[in-house]
Amino acid sequence: MDDFHRDTWAEIDLDAIYDNVANLRRFLPTGTNIMAVVKANAYGHGDAEVANTALEAGASYLAVAFLDEALALRKKGLAAPILVLGASRPEDVSLAAEHRIALTVFRLDWLEKAAALYQGSAPVYFHLKMDTGMGRLGVKDERETKQMAALIERHPHFILEGVYTHFATADEINTDYFSYQYDRFLSMLEWLPFRPPLVHCANSAATLRFPDRAFNMVRFGISMYGLAPSPSIKPLLPYELKEAFSLHSRLVHVKKLQPGEKVSYGATYTAQAEEWIGTIPIGYADGWLRRLQHFHVLVDGKKAPIVGRVCMDQCMIRLPGPLPVGTKVTLIGRQGDEVISIDDVARHLDTINYEVPCLISYRVPRIFFRNKRIMEVRNAVGRVGTNA
Ligand SMILES: Cc1ncc(COP(=O)(O)O)c(C=O)c1O
């Protein structure tokens, strides 16, 4: 690959993203809109590429966490409506309106400030967030909710496009708290003088488990990327998800160690016999964390343990034999019959699968595949090549 100059890269299978959204489209009741959640650079996959693919496959709305993420998508030519799920600043309402970016509102004082500051004439779209039990963002008070709805209705340019809430436990087997939040949302909706056009509550877990309780829009994040929202509900998922993210590197150095010779900082690893050790150019600054010492990678179709401490930019693996420099190493993905899934990495790190692709840093170029061919390559500074 001559589009970048580093032997470590992530491959993003946009066909998998497409299929995950298209399958959802078929699964959901007709009339349910799909909002593709592409915050955090599409969970580390690549914001614009994932957004375009999701829209092609049947999503009609995008969601991000911050206004800057929405503006970045606009800069990359995305024209679909975008909702900012997190808190924005009232000073930035004009900027959002100018770019047809909808904002989340959850405080009356914020809305009053935004109304006082807004000088434009473009419509400003709001989604009112209700806190039904997540305890993060959202209005909880009936009077405040009614005052907010009234202010928006009165304002010549403000539009209440949506109302929503977020579940805390939709990915758990026990559905008591989920049901409590759902019922609370139903009763809180009654506080509004009218139903806005878009009503949404379901993340991936709720979408896939309770499609009949999705109102008219779902916010589809983790499962768009082919990942189960939690290990416990994985067996309950209604159709197979396709993982889109894989991570690869190449051997840049191979050496034979004699018994007793050491590897990496702290000299924590000692060769027990004559061993072949390979160096790969990926480390904790790429998001391949130090805690992945004792985990493994795939090389030559077999598992190879990570030995010694993971360094900032490199780590070492014990090879099954004297493999040539340049041999491909798979850190996440498949080689032959062996697979390392994002869930495997998450389990080793004692965390959730969401965190793993988000951790893989800007330093690792993303290669996007569509229709099984390389479509585009992006590194830290942007697009560096395309075969399309
Ligand atoms: C408000 C909100 N809605 C939807 C999502 C998507 O959730 P998931 O990735 O579980 O589908 C998130 C993700 O964290 C979120 O914060």
Automatic annotation (TrEMBL):
Substrate binds at R136, M312. It comes from the Bacteria. The active site is at K39, Y265. The modification N6-(pyridoxal phosphate)lysine is found at K39. Pathway: Amino-acid biosynthesis; D-alanine biosynthesis; D-alanine from L-alanine: step 1/1. It holds the Pfam family Ala_racemase_C. The keyword Nucleus does not apply. It catalyses: L-alanine = D-alanine. SUPFAM superfamilies: Alanine racemase C-terminal domain-like (SSF50621), PLP-binding barrel (SSF51419). Keywords: Isomerase, Pyridoxal phosphate. One of its GO terms (molecular function) is alanine racemase activity. NCBIfam families: alr (TIGR00492). Belongs to the alanine racemase family. This is Alanine racemase. It comes from Geobacillus subterraneus.
